[in-house]
Amino acid sequence: ADVILETPDGDRFFIARAILIQASSVFETMFSLPQATSQADVSEGSNDLEFGGGLPVVKVTERSRTLDTLLRICYPIRSPQLENMDSTEIEQILQAALKYDMDGATFDIRNALNAPRFRDPMTALTVFIMAYRNGWKEDAQRAARDTLKEPLFMPYNPALDTIKASVYHKLLQYH
């Protein structure tokens, strides 16, 4: 590892910079910028970078579990079983993948959303919202069809806060 990613909850992930550069254009750009080379450089005010055990520390906004899953998708190891995760957790991982411009991770997440467990009406509404917000027309259409299996009057879904009322109204009309 040659860099540390630190989450708001204080967990530190010791990561190979090359993996982040390969997976994310955001990290590629970040690491191409001039960096402080020591704690002394940081102390002189030349950079806001922190050092932990001699390694640069990059503070991220994602929670540990979200970052852990996202990094497991990017590392050349067995990927996490996204299709077994809760749709809310998938949404958080997707937002992080989009934030860091991780096309491979976004592709894996999008594929996971096609798993049978995401086709039930309650989960399909969340998938519809994710797909619609990201411009995934075919996925949004499939998820809209999946919502037809039951009445759309179901318990409140926090994902509704992320779309316009007009989008939800169109889904109701489709129903």
Automatic annotation (TrEMBL):
Name of one Pfam family that matches: BTB
Domain of life of the native organism: Eukaryota
Coiled coil residues, start to end: none
SUPFAM superfamilies noted in UniProt: POZ domain
InterPro entries, sorted: BTB/POZ_dom, SKP1/BTB/POZ_sf
Gene3D superfamilies: Potassium Channel Kv1.1, Chain A (3.30.710.10)
BTB domain mapped to chain residues: 1-75
Protein name (Swiss-Prot/TrEMBL): BTB domain-containing protein
Taxonomic path: Eukaryota, Fungi, Dikarya, Basidiomycota, Agaricomycotina
